[in-house]
Amino acid sequence: MRIDVVSIFPAFFEALEVSLLGRARGAGILDIRVHDLRDSTHDRHRTVDDTPYGGGAGMVMKPEPWAEALQTIATDAEAPPGGGQHPIFIFPSPAGEVFTQATAGELAEAPHLVFGCGRYEGIDERVFDYAAELGSVRLISLGDYVLNGGEVAAMAMIEAIGRLVPGVVGNPASLVEESHEDGLLEYPSYTKPAAWRGRDVPPVLLSGNHGAIAAWRREQQIERTRARRPDLLGE
Ligand code: ADE
Questions:
Q1: Can you tell me the distance from the alpha carbon of 227 to that of 225, in angstroms, rounded to the nearest whole number?
Q2: Does the CA dihedral 185-191-195-199 come out positive or negative?
Q3: Is the CB of residue 145 below 6 angstroms from any atom belonging to ligand 1?
Q4: Could you tell me if the CB of 144 is within 6 A of ligand 1?
Q5: Is the distance from the beta carbon of residue 150 to the nearest atom of ligand 1 less than 6 Å?
Q6: 7 CB within 6 A, ligand 1
Q7: Cβ 53 under 6 angstroms from ligand 1
Q8: CA 174, 15, 107, 220: dihedral to nearest 10 degrees?
């Protein structure tokens, strides 16, 4: 999978060099390229923002640097498929659709994602229409809170999507038994020692009875989901 990221703070993405995603990049499973939006400006101050038409607080990101950056990526001959046409452009935004495990699973199937990380009061709206001519466009929110820009949200999405790409996580079985994969929260986990600081591991986990363990884990999943996230159960 190819992932391009456009940001005025490329340093945010240095964390993608470590851990599982870093290894997947080294192995050629994930081709992640980070671009500085200011490289697509042509004035002495490398300007990326300006005041909003109609007034209001803050600054808006200018359309032209975005158009140049996105077009260069979309027409990059090395980008998949077929010469790099039609990537999915993802703009992290608190005004977008909410990102879920299902969104991650869907996007993990795409050959080419492009993250456009906005700052300030957002990006000139015409950039989204322009990007829709180069590929498909999704505005995606991490949740109902506001970050200072799209970088941290893009990082979270890249990790959630990237780990679902075959070969990134060593043991694919571990992807199946986790929170949100079946619409429930994950069951609690324990490791050795069986007794620790006056707290014991639930005896069923030491019983060797796989049926009883599976039933207990399921009950725990439902109980936790009801207590912490009743919305997932439609309650
Ligand atoms: N940018 C600012 N806030 C955001 C959020 N909640 N999700 C995605 N992108 C954002």
A1: 5
A2: negative
A3: yes
A4: no
A5: yes
A6: no
A7: no
A8: 30
Top pLDDT among 28 and 174 is at 28
Task: Evaluate: CB of 103 within 6 angstroms of ligand 1.
Answer: no
Q: Residue with structure tokens 């993990």?
A: 108
Tell me the whole-structure pTM to 2 decimals: 0.94
CA of residue 219 to ligand 1 center, whole Å: 34
Sheet of 136-141: strand order equals 31-36, 2-7, 112-116, 88-98, 136-141
Q: Amino acid identity of 16?
A: L
Q: Tens digit of pLDDT for each residue in 150-174?
A: 999 999 999 999 999 999 998 888 8
Judge if the beta carbon of residue 221 lies within 6 A of ligand 1: no
Q: What angle do CA 222, 225, 227 make, to 5 degrees?
A: 110
Which of 146, 157, 158 gets mutated to test ligand 1 (max ligand atoms within 8 A of its CB)? 146
Q: Report the half-sphere exposure of 82 (CA within 13 A, side-chain side).
A: 3
Taken as a whole, the chain contains a residue count of: 235
Cα separation, 132 vs 88, in Å, equals 9
